[in-house]
Amino acid sequence: MESMANEGGMMNTRSLQEGVTVKRRSRPAEKELDQDMVEIFVRRLCNLLDITDHFGRYATLSTQEKIERLFLASKEDKDQSDFNCAVPPKIRLQVPVLFQAIAGVMEEKSGALIQSTAEINGEGFGRALVYSGRIILVLKSLRAGFPFPFTSEDKVIRYGLACVEEGLEFLEKYKEMTAVYGSFSIEG
């Protein structure tokens, strides 16, 4: 056993002497966002939030303030859901609204009819689907509410646009298969 440990130590000193660099995991650099997609996503999200504002209390707010007040969870909400494993109602409302906004952006960009369905239970488990006909474009499993609750607008936008790009790539991949008969006729 001791000889194996010494060999490992010898390998490390040898690699340092030879100038071999050790690869370390680091955070990937954040990708530059397409501002046109960001604008569409924020507009769609705000339109959905306006629909839930029945009395127009937040109609005079800017888009950033609207998203912050009506959509994002506060630090207290996040701490509460982390502490007792129960998902507050505000967070349970985030899930379907976010995926409806994602579906709306994909629909606007592709011209195809895109729909979404999302559910999350009180413990934070659930799933979200974004689909067109019989083709599932985005499928996300929610385990203990992850990645929800969102506490910053940047994280919401990055997550939403990542889902949009994933779905549009998948839609483009299967465009040839659905061109002749449409997406409703694929046998599955």
Q: Would you summarize the structure shown here?
A:
The protein is mainly alpha-helical. It has helices spanning 2-18, 35-52, 63-70, 75-84, 89-110, 153-173, 175-179, and strands spanning 115-120, 126-132, 135-142.
Main sheet overview? 3 strands, antiparallel
Pick out the low-confidence regions.
none
Shape: globular
- Topology order in helix (H) and strand (E) letters: HHHHHEEEHH
Helix content: 40-55%
What is the quaternary state of this protein?
single chain
Through-space gap between termini: 56 Å
Percent strand equals: 5-15%
CATH architecture: Orthogonal Bundle
Rounded to an integer in angstroms, the radius of gyration calculated over CA atoms is 22 Å
Structural description of this entry:
The radius of gyration is 22 Å and the shape is globular. Helix content is 54%, strand content 11%. It has helices at 2-18, 35-52, 63-70, 75-84, 89-110, 153-173, 175-179; strands spanning 115-120, 126-132, 135-142. The model has no long low-confidence stretch (mean pLDDT 78). It has one domain: Putative cytoplasmic protein, CATH 1.10.3100.20. The protein has 188 residues and is mostly helical. It is built from seven helices and three strands. A hairpin with a 2-residue loop joins β2 (126-132) and β3 (135-142).
